[in-house]
Amino acid sequence: MRSSKHNNPTTAAAAAAPAPAAATAATTAAAATQQQQPSSSLQGLKGFRGMNSMSFASSGGDPEGLDSGLSEGLDGEGLLLVFIEACRLCCCALQQHIESCMQSLLGSDFLSISKLPEANIWPQGRVDGEKEVIDLEGILHLVTAYWNEVFEQIVRDPQLLQRLQRTVICWASQDLSRFDRAYICEFLGDAAAFCRAFGVEEAAAQLEEMRCRVSPPGGGIDVFSNPKP
Known about the structure:
Elements (H helix, E strand, L loop, with lengths): L10 H5 L6 H12 L19 H7 L6 H4 L6 H31 L3 H4 L7 E2 L10 E2 L1 H10 L1 H9 L2 H15 L8 H17 L3 H14 L15
Antiparallel strand pairs: 1-2
């Protein structure tokens, strides 16, 4: 890979992140811990790489099951649903922008040149019938790897990137004990700020709305607490 990646303090964290395939086991473990039978809405938690994320990005509304996750009685299952939908929304909103940046730098074959792990690429036809799609973990991997060349001027805040990486790592490594309301709220705020850095205001607004609905009563969440750098 590129020499600049070795000088990037956040590269090691991204490289250490396990593939999102662990999401299946993570969700199963969470359900077992709660000693509950998986609800129908949890069928999508069999790995967010298999979910139709494009439909959520284009619909402008909650996919089936998300409203139940954002209800007043929001529990562990509901929080995981919120996290999954936020990942899908963020991924789809940023797809075109990430592709444009990478194609400008490496050309149309940037997926092969960058050696992005196959686990982070949804095969052609899996989500979008015409092209491959990079998942959120893959997006963070590319932003980290090519931070100096491209993305530092866009994102500007390396700590924001590090926080998003840590959350994705916790999810992939089945460390679900962290995923309480406060943690999900922090992720939603960071995801909104990340989208806003790329100029994707509509997605950022949707993520902020989700954040407000997830925040504990009296939590005093400020939807402007993650402004564009």
